[in-house]
Write a structure and sequence with these properties.
The protein is of the alpha+beta class. It contains 2 helices and 2 strands; from the N terminus they run αββα. A two-stranded antiparallel sheet has the order 1-2. A hairpin with a 2-residue loop joins strand 1 and strand 2. It is elongated and about 50 Å long. The protein starts with 15 loop residues before the first helix and ends with a helix.
């Protein structure tokens, strides 16, 4: 069993073996589901489909300079 402590600011660290098992990376979305007194943690898949714009997901490209540069594309 793997445990993690909750801080006074309601934060916790996801243990390494859980991160590796879910193949989590920085910026990934997590989904919590409550089921019969248990919380199930899942890696959330991107909300965009094949025909949707993926650029909103990349926050590093969300600056004003990037918006101006890509506006005409």
């Amino acid at each position: 069993m793997v445990t993690s402590r909750l801080t006074s600011r309601w934060r916790t660290t996801i243990p390494r073996n859980v991160r590796q098992g879910l193949q989590l990376r920085e910026g990934d979305l997590l989904r919590f589901e409550l089921m019969d007194g248990y919380a199930v943690l899942r890696k959330q898949q991107p909300a965009y489909g094949a025909n949707e714009d993926a650029f909103p997901v990349f926050e590093e490209w969300a600056g004003e300079a990037d918006q101006r540069a890509y506006r005409e594309l």
